[in-house]
Amino acid sequence: MFFKILLLIVFTGLNTIIVYGLFFTDKEERFEIAGDFQGMYFSDFLFSILNKQYPSYSKAFMERSVAFNKIGKFHEGFLFLDKAVELTPVEYLGYRGWLKYEYLRDYNGAIKDFKTLDSLTPNFIDHPWGVNIYQLLGNSYAANKDYKNALMEYEKYLNTTDKKQYTGEFFMFYGKALENSNKYNEALNSYSKAVELDSLRADHHYYKATLLFKLKEYKEAKLLISTSLELYNKNYSYKDPYNELYMQINKRDILKYKDSIEIAFDRK
Prior knowledge:
Layout: H1 2-23, H2 27-36, H3 41-53, H4 58-70, H5 74-87, H6 89-104, H7 107-120, H8 133-143, H9 147-160, H10 168-180, H11 184-197, H12 202-214, H13 218-233, H14 251-267
Helix pairs in contact: 2-3, 3-4, 4-5, 5-6, 6-7, 7-8, 8-9, 8-10, 9-10, 10-11, 10-12, 11-12, 12-13, 13-14
TPR repeats: 131-164, 168-201
InterPro entries: TPR-like_helical_dom_sf, TPR_rpt, Ycf3
Protein name: Tetratricopeptide repeat-containing protein
């Protein structure tokens, strides 16, 4: 009888501690715990409690969405992310727009989110997920084949960014929009700038080589495509292990152009 009573006391005490921890501990402490167990049922359950207790606590809705978005369950993830955006738009519009651009290929949705965010921060240049917002807007328009608006956004990037912060990646995107607008000389200059700023990227050499091939400048194109292949084999290219990036190249693309360039060079 004594042991039964003791077990009951211990069991009741443990349950009290668990209930207190789940429902009454400081919300920031519970947020940290839930974050540490992200992706597990316990984490989502703890976030669900926070969502009910603190319906205006946008950070908890945002963090709850991450586990779903990471595994591609965007329908579930966006239920919580949309709530976070509704509560704190300046904080989370950029992240939602970036997801739409990078993973969902919802370029119209991404443009809408980026434009809204930009309008809410008129004296500040936003960098959703670490990328200049005008570059992301340009990429979204370009991916939609709206090169006129893409170039307008890229010009905003150039006019609002210190030259010391220019990246080769940007000039690769900018060059492609110029090329698709039949502005070949400007595109070539942009690709050259990309190579100058970051010569250890297969992509920069690749896009410059393909444009030179189009312009029948086979000698330089041959050198660049060989460099591109060499760098690609060393894993020096833009890629994501979970997702194909906008303008991402692969080895098959390089080899195809390499053969075409070499044939054209030999004929010449």
